[in-house]
Amino acid sequence: MHSLKLSRIVKTFGPIEVLKGVDLEVKPGEFVVFVGPSGCGKSTLMRIIAGLETQTSGTVEIGGRNVDATVPAKRGIAMVFQSYALYPHLTVAGNMTLALKEDGVPKAEREARVEKAAGLLQLTPLLKRRPAELSGGQRQRVAIGRAIVREPQLFLFDEPLSNLDAALRVATRLEIAKLHRTLNATMIYVTHDQVEAMTLADRIVILNGGTVQQVGRPIDLYNRPDNLFVAGFIGSPK
Ligand code: ADP
Ligand code: MG
Predict the structure, then answer these.
(1) What is the ipTM of this complex?
(2) Which residues have CB atoms below 5 A from the ion given as ligand 2?
(3) Which of 61, 113, 131, 213 could make an S-S bridge to 149, C-beta 3.0–4.6 Å?
């Protein structure tokens, strides 16, 4: 598991400053949830951490190492998005193993990792199916499985449950909480769902307009919001 340190992250798109100097330290094994209104820069920040987007200024450290010049594949990160593009022609097992093949992981090791991840995510009976034969929730679990098999030190989840119906959202949220306990990995998770944030997070980061409004344990944000925006979000009667 890896620590994460963001220092003064600024990102501009043309004339628009989307991130205005974000500082954050995440401890190894911590579950940190980013929340904030649509357009406040959550996905941009995740993409910068993953190396899919370059910050205008500021630094990203993963596991105590500056990764600003490190390509995404070498950052030890796995990302799970809202839109989980699975390969339709491959089975569940094929989808989960593909990146491992590209990484050069030997076949026996690949199979062992897929079996373990499938067990964790209750995908074992589905390994031979193709994505078209799965429900939305099952597909999202495959997308999570595909991330797990790479044994990343840091997971990034960007609204992974938004496409699921309410019951599946709860079930998948519980799976993710279980994974965090089992894998002992560091997890950064974006949501605009207060219940997800309150139940999953060790600490919540409230973002608005490209700045961090407050960082703290769910109970502390609830009891002692720093401003009305945080109070409104967490729903505490200030
Ligand atoms: P969130 O995930 O919090 O909804 P985003 O990080 O996706 O927000 O977007 C933050 C802002 O940056 C939005 O105003 C969005 O339109 C803008 N933005 C994001 N990506 C780009 C891009 N590639 N080019 C221009 N503007 C972008
Ligand atoms: Mg987003």
Answers:
(1) 0.98
(2) 42-43
(3) 113
